[in-house]
């Protein structure tokens, strides 16, 4: 019985070690992938915001506002990835990702700024159209 317990204990220990290794590998992948998720989503949002301004310039204000809402959804996905990134504890091994994280945050802030400018430009286009009418 004691041999069985020891064997079961070793099996359990081996299982725990395997799970810990798997979790560490998954965290490393997440640490690398989260900045890319931020960059991809907020980059898409920023592009949609630019297209929204162009849509407003063509006179389609409602379409432009709908595009801003679409861009916001992409931005939120990027922001959610940002929250996941910073809700975990960063360790010394994560420092190699720091340039990528900084770039991702820069893109996030750039998209947020673009949204503010986009909304102002759409408002201005709407006012311009009203004055021309």
UniProtKB/TrEMBL annotation:
Annotated keywords: Phosphotransferase system, Sugar transport, Transferase, Transport
Positions of modified residues (Phosphohistidine): 103
Name of the protein described by the UniProt record: PTS lactose/cellobiose transporter subunit IIA
């Amino acid at each position: 019985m004691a041999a069985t317990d020891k064997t079961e204990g070793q099996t359990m220990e081996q299982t725990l070690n395997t799970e810990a290794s798997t979790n560490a590998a998954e965290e490393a992948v997440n640490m690398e992938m989260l900045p890319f998720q931020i960059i991809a989503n907020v980059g898409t949002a920023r592009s949609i915001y630019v297209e929204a301004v162009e849509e407003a310039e063509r006179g389609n204000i409602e379409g432009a506002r709908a595009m801003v809402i679409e861009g916001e959804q992409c931005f939120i996905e990027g922001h959610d990835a940002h929250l996941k990134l910073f809700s975990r504890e960063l360790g010394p091994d994560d420092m190699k990702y720091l340039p990528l994280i900084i770039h991702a945050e820069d893109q996030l802030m750039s998209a947020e700024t673009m949204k503010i400018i986009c909304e102002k430009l759409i408002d201005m286009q709407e006012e311009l159209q009203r004055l021309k009418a």
